[in-house]
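A further point concerns the way the authors explain their paired sequence and structure data. The central task, working out the structure tokens from the amino acid sequence alone, is never made concrete. I therefore recommend that a typical entry be quoted early in the introduction. An entry of this sort, consisting of the sequence and the corresponding backbone structure tokens, reads as follows:
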Amino acid sequence: MTITIRPGSTVMFTGDSITDCQRLDSEDGLGFGYPLRIAGEWGLRHPDRPVTWLNTGIGGHKVRDLEARWQTDVLDARPDVVSILVGVCDMGWHTLDPQGYVIPAEEFEAGYDRLLAPLAEAGTKLILIEPFLLPIHGVIEAGAALIGEKERQEWRTDLDPKIQAVRQLARTYGAQLLAADGMFAELAATTGPEYWAADGVHPTPAGHAALAAAWLRLVA
């Protein structure tokens, strides 16, 4: 069952930098990524169903960071639909931050569950975008860290159970699931992963377009 977006609905996107996309520097507050593409395509398809689009993504945020601002940035806005993409920054935190640690999947899932519970209680429709990692090649800079094949393998080992946690939470809460990791793996098989995310994490324009198209298939 798709989610029906009714006229006058408020739809919120939240998460980390993949959602943020310099939203505070944009006039509409949506940034340059998939939230903007979704809002634009929806407006083109459904001029008779105006929607208020909000973006509260913040670069670098993990589940624990979303928890700290959930009331003011999400719940107080009383959105009708909330779309969440979080987990990439929970992956490999110990490799990027000297004070970071390996976040167990159980801790990740418990925190994510605390985000979803009050939304479900309020009757908010949920779209969960699973975190993803594309198998790019070579060494890249991520902050002060250098990330190569070894680190990416560690990240993949860390991420997979967190993806499973998101899938389980989607089932638990009857949320729509956007299976982004599998989607990008399939797309990368024909073009190469860098086409969709040059650093394996942050989508290119084509990657954002793919996310937007997949998201729009979940709503009506």
User: Anything to note?
Assistant: The mean pLDDT is 96. Residues 10-217 form a domain with the Rossmann fold fold (CATH 3.40.50.1110). The chain is about 45% helix and 15% strand. Residues 182 and 215 are 14 Å apart (CA to CA).
